[in-house]
Backbone:
């Protein structure tokens, strides 16, 4: 096909192989630069930042370089004693987004029993609304992302019975659009990140049969642009984080082969920064932890050697889920 | 985080930047500390609003600061007039944050909260703001879908007004890919696999949970033993449900299915009969029948697309629409055309080559099954050999078929074959099969042919151990082994020749 109006060009200058050690050094180094502007300005999502870093460094088999006990201590300090949820950082308010990150961190570090698990469950149960949806916190914002956070958290804690999962599923199905995709709320435009959350929720609850795999799988594989990169919605620029949202969803639907994996791999490789280590959204931009995890996780789904296997629903190393015996549904094809 | 271009700088510039950022960092940190101090001391004042406004202008995603702001606003709430004034100021404040990041979830949610708190929300002004940001976002499917797609006829127009806009095509795809809303029971059968041992089989048009299987009564009376239903794929939802039922082969039997109190279906199993199959309703592979309006509209789209394709050959979206529309109209009649469009698409849109290959397989399977249903005798043979199949679809429609030949294809996964619970003879020669686990539950299987596949070790055959009816296994090129699948005996037969 002719050149795409919204795409990038990959050249010979861009990295072609995985700069594994650079990435590990970048992540380990990031956690030590607490005086940086970057570090201060990201405090409001610190918990997620730590989850991205820890998961990435585990995929790279260098988890032992991180200060395990310090991380656990920080996470535990962020649990709201009365409400039960976790805040992104000290002094901030508890929210479902950071509660999932905190639970993921504690499960990866095998220390979930040190948290007040009943408190977490109580927090999540209290956020389910009458229609089955979830609010992120007491201020009432509703989003299918929060539905995923709630269900994923409870699955990791083996307490799914605490909420009404039938209603949670019904709400997610109301957010499905005619293109087979899902949005934030009923009637909202389909978006790959949102699709990941909804497909993940249906996988955890064993309800994948509600999805038309061919229709949604096609929408997802249409996200691949001539550069090999994936965008999140039609007519948008490619971004390496969609190598996660889209590839993970396709994996769950049993249709990962519908995208061109060698071109996908080349695009992800080109988003590495050979100077600083880490991945960016598009070649030539600034790196961050978020894109670093999703770049590595996408490569792991494509079977890159040197990386541990990632679970497509929880975005956690597969060995962790095997250890706690949590499995997900994958559409059989 | 997104779209920040990395700019090459000199050491001097970098030091300058570092200094500037350090200043910003201190300022931000000071603000946050002050805001948190106020919050923990329960101070809700104008100064708190001012500080959080500055911080949020720099960082509109800091959710906790929005929370504090709402707490202050609620504490300062007075009579309707002053409350309205406060909230109006708040709208302006949010708008300035949206200028920094028009996608900020936190800012949009705060705006929603403010609107919901107005005694009389100024919706008109609000809609014009939304309009402004929708333009920034360039396109918005949800609005588009609402406004344009109420009538099928409108779709046809939309497609031809602006063929470069993808949205109408998505809608068309949904239209022709839609599934029926309520699952139907398609078939029920009784199949003997050995002596008096047999299976009751129920096939549904969509995956259903076990509770959807009708209650069954044997020879007019409630069965002594309750049937234990299982799904061949071990899932909670399945198109096929099976239960063991032993019936003496020297007598005739009736199996009654109580679908609901007013509806009962009967299945007669004759003396010595090996199979008794009943199609409860006529089979429709493609879901619900099209209405006359839909049909004539689709015909019109088809004719227009054929014309477009002649004028401007090789347009992906036109070809995709032709595939969908012809498929929906009648995939059997249009099979050759659809197949050739898919081949064109494979060359045109190389990135998605494997998607098109899978769709070709689906087409071959669907059309063959339609044909099969028309001519098939009960328990007869289904053959789809040499069609470059890359995947198996609709396998539940073969749940009662006795002989199946899928040889000379490109199959790697055979997961859907777990549904072939009545299959006695299965031919899978010349494929790319490695994992035989999906065959592990096929109790009726007597003969299995797997020559020219990726079977490289005895370990791969181990999953077939439990198949007590299996007496013939073709595994190598030119090699046929008769055995009862005892792995030890198998080794004796195969150890010299097995590894290819």
Residues:
């Amino acid at each position: 096909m002719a050149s795409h109006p919204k795409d990038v060009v990959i050249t010979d200058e861009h990295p072609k192989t995985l700069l594994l050690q650079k990435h590990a050094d970048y992540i380990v180094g990031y956690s030590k630069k607490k005086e940086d502007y970057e570090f201060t300005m990201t405090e409001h999502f610190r918990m997620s930042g730590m989850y991205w870093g820890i998961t990435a460094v585990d995929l790279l088999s260098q988890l032992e370089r991180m200060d395990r006990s310090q991380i656990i201590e920080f996470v535990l300090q962020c649990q709201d004693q009365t409400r039960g949820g976790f805040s992104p950082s000290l002094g901030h308010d508890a929210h479902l987004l950071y509660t999932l990150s905190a639970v993921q961190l504690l499960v990866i570090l095998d220390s979930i029993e040190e948290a007040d698990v009943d408190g977490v469950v109580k927090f999540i149960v209290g956020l389910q609304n009458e229609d089955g949806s979830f609010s992120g916190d007491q201020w009432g914002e509703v989003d299918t992302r929060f539905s995923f956070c709630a269900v994923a958290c409870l699955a990791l804690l083996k307490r799914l019975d605490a909420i009404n999962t039938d209603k949670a599923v019904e709400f997610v199905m109301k957010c499905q659009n005619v293109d087979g995709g899902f949005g934030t709320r009923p009637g909202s435009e389909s978006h790959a990140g949102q699709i990941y959350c909804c497909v993940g929720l249906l996988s955890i609850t064993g309800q994948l049969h509600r999805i038309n795999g061919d229709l949604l799988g096609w929408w997802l594989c249409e996200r691949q642009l001539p550069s090999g990169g994936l965008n999140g919605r039609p007519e948008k620029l490619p971004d390496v984080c969609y190598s996660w949202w889209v590839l993970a969803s396709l994996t769950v639907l049993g249709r990962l082969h519908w995208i061109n994996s060698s071109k996908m791999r080349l695009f992800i490789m080109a988003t590495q920064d050979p100077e600083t280590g880490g991945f960016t959204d598009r070649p030539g931009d600034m790196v961050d932890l978020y894109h670093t995890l999703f770049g590595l996780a996408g490569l792991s789904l494509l079977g890159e050697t040197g990386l541990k296997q990632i679970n497509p629903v929880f975005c956690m190393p597969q060995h962790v889920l095997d250890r706690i015996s949590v499995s997900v549904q994958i559409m059989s094809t | 985080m997104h779209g920040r271009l990395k700019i090459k700088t000199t050491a001097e510039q970098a030091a300058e930047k570092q200094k500037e950022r350090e200043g910003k960092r201190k300022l931000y940190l000071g603000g946050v500390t002050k805001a948190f101090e106020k919050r923990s001391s329960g101070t809700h004042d104008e100064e708190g609003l001012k500080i959080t406004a500055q911080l949020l202008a720099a960082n509109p995603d800091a959710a906790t600061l929005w929370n504090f702001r709402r707490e202050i606003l609620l504490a300062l709430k007075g009579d309707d007039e002053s409350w309205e004034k406060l909230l109006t100021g708040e709208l302006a404040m949010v708008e300035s944050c949206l200028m920094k990041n028009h996608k900020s979830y936190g800012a949009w949610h705060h705006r929603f909260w403010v609107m919901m708190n107005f005694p009389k929300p100024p919706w008109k002004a609000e809609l014009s703001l939304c309009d402004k940001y929708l333009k920034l976002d360039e396109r918005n499917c949800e609005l588009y879908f609402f406004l344009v797609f109420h009538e099928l006829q409108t779709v046809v127009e939309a497609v031809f007004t602006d063929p470069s806009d993808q949205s109408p095509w998505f809608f068309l795809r949904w239209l022709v890919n839609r599934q029926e809303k309520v699952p139907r029971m398609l078939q029920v059968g009784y199949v003997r696999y050995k002596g008096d041992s047999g299976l009751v089989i129920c096939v549904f048009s969509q995956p259903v949970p076990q509770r959807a299987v009708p209650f069954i009564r044997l020879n007019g009376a409630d069965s002594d033993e309750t049937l234990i239903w299982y799904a061949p794929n071990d899932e909670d939802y399945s198109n096929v449900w099976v239960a063991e039922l032993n019936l003496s082969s020297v007598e005739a039997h009736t199996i009654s299915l109580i679908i609901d109190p007013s509806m009962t279906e009967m299945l007669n199993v004759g003396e010595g009969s090996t199979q008794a199959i009943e199609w409860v309703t006529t089979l429709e592979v493609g879901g619900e029948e099209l209405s006359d309006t839909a049909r004539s509209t689709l015909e019109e789209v088809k004719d227009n697309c054929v014309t477009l394709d002649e004028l401007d050959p090789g347009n992906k979206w036109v070809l995709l629409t032709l595939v969908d529309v012809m498929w929906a109209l009648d995939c059997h009649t249009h099979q050759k055309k659809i197949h050739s469009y898919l081949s064109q698409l494979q060359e045109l849109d190389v990135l998605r080559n494997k998607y098109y290959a899978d769709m070709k397989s689906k087409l071959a399977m669907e059309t063959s099954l339609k044909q099969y249903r028309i001519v098939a005798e009960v328990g007869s043979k289904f053959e789809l050999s040499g069609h470059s199949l890359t995947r198996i679809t609709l396998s539940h429609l073969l749940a009662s078929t006795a002989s199946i030949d899928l040889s000379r294809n490109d199959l790697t996964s055979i997961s859907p074959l777990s549904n072939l619970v009545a299959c006695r003879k299965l031919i899978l020669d010349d494929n790319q099969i490695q994992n035989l686990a999906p065959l592990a539950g096929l109790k009726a299987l007597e003969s299995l042919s797997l020559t020219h596949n990726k079977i490289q070790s005895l370990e791969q055959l181990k999953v077939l151990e439990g198949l007590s009816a299996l007496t013939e296994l073709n595994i190598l090129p030119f090699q046929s082994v008769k055995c009862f699948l005892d792995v030890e005996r198998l080794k004796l037969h195969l150890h010299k020749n097995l590894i290819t």
